[in-house]
Write a structure and sequence with these properties.
alpha+beta
């Protein structure tokens, strides 16, 4: 199973689960190193992504920028709260107004040579969670994860 699964474990959370056919250390590197992130976390086709900052330590800031050929730009930033390589990453995530800040809990577990990715996003309210879910975020994430699959195969 490779397809991204989405669930709602509480009124304020969205959970994504996906498997990668690679060891956890490799998935961790793909998820945390700028050179790799910029190759796969580009969202839908037609976008590029730049890691402006990624201070991978508790209290370290991160910032990503996505650009489309028509000049559209999206920015996201936050602060890493907990970094336990190669297993766990807890970070705040902020897209700017009107979106409230969320907290992302990434957990990577290795199961028989494969890695299970569990990403739980916690919002300040049910309304904030529902608004985020209605953006089509799962559809935007899956093409990126498919690119990560390809990157992991080449590693």
């Amino acid at each position: 199973m490779k397809k991204l699964e989405l669930s709602f474990p509480s009124d304020t959370e969205i959970r994504f689960v996906r498997y990668f056919d690679a060891p956890r250390d490799l998935v961790w590197r793909g998820w945390t190193e700028a050179a790799h992130l910029e190759q796969w976390m580009t969202g839908p086709d037609g976008w590029t992504m730049e890691v402006v900052k990624n201070e991978l330590r508790p209290g370290g800031a991160w910032e990503y920028v996505w650009r489309r050929s028509n000049g559209t730009e999206m920015r996201m930033h936050g602060v890493h709260q907990e970094v336990v390589a190669p297993e766990k990453l807890v970070s705040t995530e902020n897209w700017g107004d009107p979106w409230p800040e969320s907290i992302n809990h990434l957990l990577l577990t290795e199961e028989q040579g494969r890695t299970r990715m569990t990403l739980t996003i916690s919002y300040i309210s049910k309304q904030a969670r529902d608004n985020a879910a209605q953006t089509g975020m799962a559809d935007g994430m899956e093409p990126s994860f498919a690119r990560l699959d390809e990157l992991l195969i080449r590693a």
